[in-house]
Amino acid sequence: MSQNLEERPANNNTTSIKQELWEYLKMIIIVVVVVFLLTHFVIINAIVPSESMENTIMTGDQFFGARFTYWFEDPQRYDIVVFKYPDDESQLFVKRVIGLPGDKVEIIDGKVYINDSPEPLDDSFIPEPMKGSFGPYEVPENYYFMLGDNRNDSKDSRYWQNTYVSRDAILGKAGLRYWPLSSFGFLE
After folding, report:
1. Based on the domain organization, do 31 and 65 belong to the same domain?
2. 188 domain-assigned
3. What's the CATH number where 95 sits?
4. Rounded to an integer, what distance in angstroms lies between the CA atom of residue 63 and that of residue 188?
5. 133 assigned to active site
6. pLDDT tens, 41-98?
7. Of 2, 16, 95, 133, catalytic
8. How far is the C-alpha of 134 from the C-alpha of 51, rounded, in Å?
9. Model-level pTM?
10. In sequence order, what are the beta bridge partners of 107?
11. What is the DSSP letter of 128?
């Protein structure tokens, strides 16, 4: 019997370890590829650095945006979107869509009017009345006019050198807030 043990190939153990390492490596590669595909084509992870969207989204909140939302439809008025800041595309901003392509946007005494409507847009979600008058702005085709919900403390379309956000710069629609846990839920 001792002869059979001595005759067993010594590299059987080595082969088993190599196979196990290869299985772990394959699993790691698959996870990295899936995470890459998810974060570059399906979702966007965003952290809010400022108070410009308060009280809808608070400073420090973290949420996932859905990149795929606008694959088959265009952004709508009031959507909260993540986009490349038009004055420095290396920065990502989060704001609310107010003006759509072709719209005339005018802010008179803190109220937003679209296309000379006698009725201002609903602003029940802003924390305090907006101050000032701005515009009018003529939103070009394939561009959008953005405002923060905390309008008195928001760097938005009213103040940018490049006033409008191109359709191509919009990365996704704000979706699920996951941090802080006490505010977990979908953004509207």
Report:
1. no
2. no
3. 2.10.109.10
4. 12
5. no
6. 778 888 888 999 998 999 999 999 998 889 899 999 999 999 999 999 999 999 999 9
7. 95
8. 21
9. 0.80
10. 112, 134
11. S
Evaluate whether 122 touches 111 at the Cβ level (below 8 Å).
no
**30 in helix, strand or coil?**
helix
Q: Active-site residue 52, yes or no?
A: yes
Token digits of residue 142:
């394939």
Co-location of 7 and 69 in the same domain: no
Three-class SS of residue 31?
helix
Number of domains in the chain: 2
| Rounded Cα–Cα distance for residues 6 and 100 (Å) | 80
- The sign of the CA dihedral 162, 164, 81, 44 is negative
Residue 87 has which token pair?
């004055």
Same domain, 8 and 73: no
- Is residue 21 located within the same domain as residue 60? no
Catalytic residue among 52, 154, 157, 173: 52
